[in-house]
Amino acid sequence: MSSNNAAVVEIAQTAGKFSSSIVLQTDNKYIDVKSILGLFTTLVSHKDYELHVHGSDAEEAKVTMQEVFAKHGLQIVVVTD
To answer: Which positions fall inside the HPr domain (predicted)?
Structure first.
């Protein structure tokens, strides 16, 4: 398993712990972060990603997701509306 696979699995599992909607945007694509398949086809390092989080536990989800992405060396910008 490559490190990217490990990142995808951990990101999806972590996102799954939250009730909030967690969506990753890159270019013109929107990917549900809870979808392992969606992440596999999208997640490559050295790209710019925006993370959109909406829901009752959004604040906690934003912090936790930033930590998981950073742990795997992926750059994201959390979008606050």
So the answer is: 10-70
